[in-house]
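---------- Forwarded message ----------

FYI, see the PhoD-like phosphatase record below. Original note from H. follows.
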Amino acid sequence: MTALVLGPHLRHVSHHTATIWVETDRPCEVRVVNREHGVDAGARTFTAHGHHYAVVEIEGLEPGARIPYEVVADGETVWPESGSGFPPSQIRTLDASGDLRISFGSCRRSPGSVEQFGYDALAALSDRLRTGGDSVEWPDVLLMVGDQIYADELTDEMRAFIRSRRGPGDLPVEEVADYEEYTYLYKLAWHDDPAVRWLLSTVPTFTIFDDHDIRDDWNTSYAWRQEIWSQPWWRARITGGIGSYWIYQHLGNLSPGERASDPVYRAVRKASDETGDAGAVLDAFAERADKEPASTRWSYAHDWGGVRLIVVDSRCSRLLTADRRGMLDDEEFAWLDGQCQGGMDHLLIASSLPYLLPRTIHHAESWNEAVAGGAWGKTAAKLGEKIRQAADLEHWAAFDESFRALAADVVAVGRGERGPAPASISFLSGDIHYSYLARVTRPDTESKISQIVCSPLRNPLAGLFRWANRIAYTGVARGPFRALAKLARVPVPPLRWRLTDGPWFDNAIATVELSGRDCRVRWETPRDGGALAEMGGAQITG
């Protein structure tokens, strides 16, 4: 009998469509059914590196649909699992009212004990939804903004799997080696906790990667890339990481139309049908995506009523050459520039890396970029590069040209220069392992511009780093680091902002609530026992 290896995952939804993603243990025909509601959609699996996947698209649904579903593989029901104790998974389309709730966060370690990583915010959300009854407000979308897996901070379970398949003298067990090992990371993250597995089957989920999805400090700088590609093991590592991300995360971010027009998707399906396995095609695509960032777009945008969500790839699409550096390559930034338009009630720009950091850290990173770029000479540049990699100075502030270009875009939108100004322009980010709200105070715009950070879902910051970030948050060192940046000839930032709420260092999930021209955010943390409790909240507009 065919079995599910991973999934089902409810991925891209609109008002009339939904996508279900699964991995099975053999090639088969996968169907998603609820005949009472007229749902019966199917897809044949495709195969890559011996793994079998199906993406099932359901169309013609009503807005606000809540339809329980089953997954059938070659005529046998494989979901829901008998005796699971969980409510039926549902297909959940967006509501016609235009109201929208987006829950988001980043940085989730799994598996692991409560003593190691604390209570899991995703598991806590799952428990609330399945036990809370009709009074519970469900998120319309779950957005995970990076570090869904940790390919470089391995658990005992992952080390055991690596030892079971490697020979003596192979890479050390602290390094994931290839596609097969990445697939096991996804299994550990999304299968072994029944509460999280059920959550992903019934709440529409969107994602974007950050460094740990591939490797710590991924694409920090041109020097980093030169060094990593000199390693004989890197090709298998990067092709495995990017290829698995494309299948396990990226495909589900796309609408049915976008997926159908994706040449890589067509090529993978064709190779799978003709040769039985599309692994070679996937590897070639992944290697090119890393070496030629402009060849692939991982960013995406969706319009839902009066809301535009832009999810920006701030990792794989970086411009890193001997002469230029940018958070995005030229093609990717031109795309982002085109997406930053008015005419919406709310514009959301999700980036795994915060756009607006505490200003002390912003000045430190902009100073470091200038020094590493030669502002203080070659000797200081070498030291600056060492500091950059050691301290993870790689956020938007460390790509000053990109920071300024995006500032110009959002200010133009906020002033109504690209159509009617939205009520709010909000950056949604994670990465830094604490949560806060920052508000732009200058220049004046019709739109309220803010940075909302929620991190971690489950990976709290260690004590020393927490202490250092608390100091940065207070602004004690802001003046000295701004002075250093000035000495390195870094211009004054084009925006001024202040942190108004937070920081909170606990595991957390945030929810942005959008209704008409109103925007509100709240952060919740799993307390003792794992139940979610409000940690903070703020009115953005209204």
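H. also flagged this: The first strand starts at residue 4 and ends at 13.
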